[in-house]
Amino acid sequence: MPTHTRTHARSGGLAGRLVALVADVFAFVIVLWIVLYLLDANQGNQVVDFVHDAATWLAGWSHDIFTFSQEWLNVVIGYGLAAVVYLIAGHALARLLSRF
Asked: pLDDT tens for residues 2-14?
């Protein structure tokens, strides 16, 4: 097998792993916010505030797609949808990049 092919395959695999890692981190931040919200974490805390801001920025596109009468359900579905989309899209893209 030529050397340039192995190097190319490794770089594609590395790119795929990086994309999957980014998708996992995005989903983790969003799920962490859902857990903190459900546990009624102190939103005056700087760490909780940072996680909330990051999750809101990451999941901004999924807000108000569905609306429910209970706020906790809005948070779980709205943010949860974003986390699931990041995982599915990120890992699909990672798999595609790994093939090249």
From this structure: 555 554 556 668 8
